[in-house]
Amino acid sequence: MAIREILVVPDRRLKLKSKPAKAVDDKLRALMDDMLETMYAAPGIGLAAIQVGEPVRAIVMDLDHKDGERRPRYFVNPEILWASEETQPYEEGCLSVPDIYDEVERPAHVRLRYLNYDGEQVEEDAEGVFAVCIQHEMDHLDGVLFIDHLSRLKRDRAVARVKKAAKEKEAA
Ligand code: K1U
Ligand code: ZN
């Protein structure tokens, strides 16, 4: 397993639409293992493959990895089968838009279909942080970032702040 570099805005690869995985094989599982290590190291609660430069529809997640106890989850070729009309606001962050947080409104409940780590098809309902995180990560698979849900002014300001911070880090 390896910790990979996380792409950061304005990297154009983050705008790519990722391709469906042809199979859940050892190569994809090795990528998801790397993604998980990368996510834990960051730290974060979710990560999409494109964030490590791989345009394939795969997501890893662990919403509650406190006290060393890990509960990793893997979502390959996820689809939203149903989304509630009811929405909920949530203050989101993104490892590809470091240190920027803002409120996004998304459906409060969704029904998902995906392939798990063993390639089995699963259908599951999501609510709360799980619903927020899976929708955020699925947006990544379509080249959409949480800042794309904000006003143009807020989005441009966020990208400018990330660029400035990267320049300052480079100069230090
Ligand atoms: O970059 C990403 O997609 C990961 C992102 C997931 C996410 C967070 C909040 C709302 C929606 C989606 C993150 O993990 S940002 C970091 C974060 O939320 C966190 C980090 C450490 C502990 C707890 C949370
Ligand atoms: Zn993100």
Q: Give the low-pLDDT segments.
A: none
Neighbour order of strands in the largest sheet:
1-2-3-6-7
The helix content, as a percent range, equals: 25-40%
**Pattern of helices and strands:** HEEEEEEEHH
Shape: globular
- Please count the beta strands (DSSP E, at least 2 residues each): 7
A few lines on this structure:
This protein is α+β, with helices and mostly antiparallel strands.
Keywords, separated by commas or semicolons:
172 residues, alpha+beta, globular, binds ligand K1U
Report on this structure.
- The mean pLDDT is 96.
- The strands form two sheets. A five-stranded antiparallel β-sheet has the order 1-2-3-6-7.
- A hairpin with a 5-residue loop joins strand 6 (109-115) and strand 7 (121-127).
- The chain starts with 25 loop residues before the first helix and ends with a helix.
- The protein has helices at 26-41, 128-141, 152-171; strands spanning 46-48, 58-61, 73-83, 87-92, 102-107, 109-115, 121-127.
- With 172 residues, it is α+β, with helices and mostly antiparallel strands.
- The structure holds ligand K1U and zinc ion.
- Zinc ion binds next to helix 2.
What is the secondary structure topology, with strand pairs?
Layout: H1 26-41, E1 46-48, E2 58-61, E3 73-83, E4 87-92, E5 102-107, E6 109-115, E7 121-127, H2 128-141, H3 152-171
Antiparallel strand pairs: 1-2, 2-3, 3-6, 4-5, 6-7
The structure holds ligand K1U and zinc ion (ZN).
Residues 43-47, 51, 92-96, 132-133, 136-137 line the site of ligand K1U.
